[in-house]
Amino acid sequence: MLYLKTFTHTIAPSMRCGYLLLPSGRYREYIEKIRFYSCTVPVFDQYVLAEFIESGEFERHLSRVRRMLRKK
Q1: Domain boundaries, position 27
Q2: What is the pTM of this model?
Q3: Where is 27: in which H helix or E strand?
């Protein structure tokens, strides 16, 4: 099973970055078949997003947004 998602709704519509989760056993097959595609997301954007997630700020952001939406 594959899980494909973007950050468009959780961060901002202008954040054109997505991710793919797949079973570890399928990783090698994925690399063999998709390796030739280039990444269209700038490296700096990827770095900032990774820091945002690793620092815990992404989770706090989601919690704030959920609280605001519940109040509405």
Answers
A1: 3-71
A2: 0.74
A3: helix 27-34
